[in-house]
Design brief:
With about 210 residues, the protein is α/β, with parallel strands linked by helices. The protein is built from six helices and ten strands, in the order βββαβαβαββααβββα.
Length: about 210
């Protein structure tokens, strides 16, 4: 049997930007990091890795397609992943969708390539890890799982990402810390609070050095 291979042209990318942002106190997508918004940082990085990109959010932004949740209220990150799957399933020749979080502007430049290389068969999911911690919202998902995910969201009260992953074949891909002139940066450092934003500014400066 031929070895399964997932190419760049098979993958669409979606930024998950529909969260509540309660600890930040405002919509994270519009938060400025340096001279650009977090959404701009993340979209720029993702568009370098996937030929088609969109944003899971409630309103238009950055001139890319907007993919709103298909469930009422804030149903959690899996609702955003479901919306991404449904969107990608409607695109020609797309079999998988990669999701990233809007509050992680430093995610790896080789995220999509390494997740795709780890997948061994069409129905497998690949998620990122670093320092022994998993980051399931940074995942590569078969669009054929949309119906199963929809059924799970409507029946599972807790809606924890890891609970859904337990239902499927998942491979984890470990990403190293990124060297900067200051110290080692976890590429999945996420900005949840104003203090995190201050730290992110320091990392941005260190990466420019």
């Amino acid at each position: 049997m031929d070895e399964f291979s997932l190419g760049r042209s098979d993958i669409a990318g979606v930024v998950l930007a529909g969260g509540r942002s309660q600890r930040m106190g405002r919509d994270k997508a519009g938060v400025m990091l340096g001279a650009e918004s977090l959404l701009h940082h993340v979209l720029t990085r993702l568009s370098q890795q996937a030929p088609l990109v969109a944003v899971n959010a409630d309103a238009a932004a950055e001139g890319v397609p907007v993919v709103p949740d298909r469930f009422r209220g804030k149903a959690g990150p899996m609702a955003g992943i479901h919306a991404a799957m449904v969107y990608a399933a409607g695109l020609p020749s797309i079999t998988h969708v990669v999701t990233v979080s809007v509050d992680c502007p430093f995610f790896p430049a080789d995220l999509v390539a390494r997740l795709a290389a780890a997948i061994e068969h069409p129905s497998q999911i690949a998620i990122a890890t670093s320092e022994g911690r998993s980051h399931p919202v940074f995942g590569l998902w078969p669009v054929t799982l949309a119906a199963d995910l929809e059924a799970w969201i409507t029946t599972d009260e807790k809606r924890r990402v890891r609970d859904f992953l337990l239902r499927h074949d998942v491979t984890e891909v470990a990403f190293p810390l990124h060297p900067t002139r200051a110290s080692l940066l976890d590429p999945f450092f996420n900005i949840n609070t104003p203090d995190d934003l201050v730290e992110a500014e320091r990392w941005l400066e260190a990466l420019r050095g």
